[in-house]
Amino acid sequence: MHGRGTLQLPSGALYEGEFKDNMYHGAGTYTFPDGCTYRGHFHENRLEGDGVFVDKQGLVWTGVFHGDTALGLKMQLNI
């Protein structure tokens, strides 16, 4: 897949955004099965760059993400 699209995963996770070579790549939104969301930039299926993470209680982390984590935040993408 290449371009913009939506991918619903069997886990219940949902990705809406840009793809490159069948990977999350560019701007997008990832909704985790528990309702948490990440909106920002992706690079080869990993969170990379400016983004906003909202947990299921509504707490918001805004900043620069590298890989699948940010300082004080641990998460796992379902790919």
Quick gist of this model?
With 79 residues, the chain is mostly beta strands.
What would your notes on this structure say?
By secondary structure, the chain is mostly beta strands. It has one domain (3-65). It is 0% helix and 63% strand. The chain has strands at residues 3-8, 14-20, 23-31, 37-43, 46-54, 60-67, 69-70, 73-74. A 6-stranded antiparallel beta sheet has the order 1-2-3-4-5-6, with no helix packed on it.
Helical fraction: under 10%
Spatial sequence of strands, sheet with the most strands: 1-2-3-4-5-6
Distance separating the two termini: 14 Å
Mean pLDDT: 86
Number of strands: 8
Write down the domain tally.
Answer: 1
Shape: globular
Main beta-sheet strand count, sense and barrel state: 6 strands, antiparallel
Poorly predicted regions = none
Order of helices and strands: EEEEEEEE
Keywords: Repeat
Protein name: MORN repeat containing 2
InterPro entries: MORN, MORN_repeat_protein
Organism: Mola mola
What would the keywords be for this entry?
79 residues; repeat; two-stranded antiparallel ribbon; MORN_repeat_protein; MORN repeat containing 2; MORN; mainly beta
Secondary structure elements and their pairing?
Blueprint: E1 3-8, E2 14-20, E3 23-31, E4 37-43, E5 46-54, E6 60-67, E7 69-70, E8 73-74
Antiparallel strand pairs: 1-2, 2-3, 3-4, 4-5, 5-6, 7-8
Organism: Mola mola (Ocean sunfish)
Pfam families: MORN
Keywords: Repeat
